[in-house]
Amino acid sequence: MKVFFTNIFIIVFKKTWPFWVGGSILAVLNILFFALTQRPWKITTGFTYWGAWIFQGFGGRPNNWSYFQGEQKMVALEQWFYSNDLSILNFGVILGALISVLLSGQFKIKRIKNFKQAAFALVGGIIMGYGTRISFGCNIGAFFSSVPSLSFSGYVYGFFVVIGAWLGTKILLKYLL
Amino acid sequence: MANVKIDCMYEACPIPLLKLARELKKLEQGDVVVVETDHSCAILNITEWAEKEKFDYWIDETNQGEWDIHVRKTRLK
Hints:
By secondary structure, chain A is mostly helical. Chain A has helices spanning 2-14, 19-37, 44-57, 71-78, 85-103, 115-134, 139-144, 152-176.
């Protein structure tokens, strides 16, 4: 009996799940999220609010920026890390990832290898953040939430993500290896 | 027979696998490449790749969460 439960634990928490299992769970959760909140799941919009709140904390006025015009974003600017739903959701994603990595016994604080790695990570992060704002979302908001709503923009986004990933692989092979 | 060590500590996927493949290409049959990594997903994709290529491999856990992945350039039957 103990062996049985150990095996279940290893299959559920230690081994990687097949893609179809992860995909199905994500699909069900996406439907639940949309049904409960009446809005699609987004990730980077929450991060944008984090940045805006911090900027406001230093006396900045992002409420004058054209990006934040519109009722929903104006309301979000008045909220805070624990009162905005997208922000709370992002904390949930990070917490969930932490729990899963702890359960699989793979938690480790990783060091930075060298200056090149750090520079690439920083530049990559900035390009990603900038890209999500001018394309109105990341692969969650602009693709994962867009395709099920039969929006054509999701497919356009997906097509260019593939091109971007192909280019990124070329850069990786040339400069990072 | 050569035994080449490549340092892939703190490097994320797919860099360990790409470095291993590049290194093995240069070597002779029977030579061994050791990948030092602290990235558990490197174990998954390297062993998957080695199995597909029919290369012999074995793994030592050198420290908590750090592994040496040995891959020998030999076609297994």
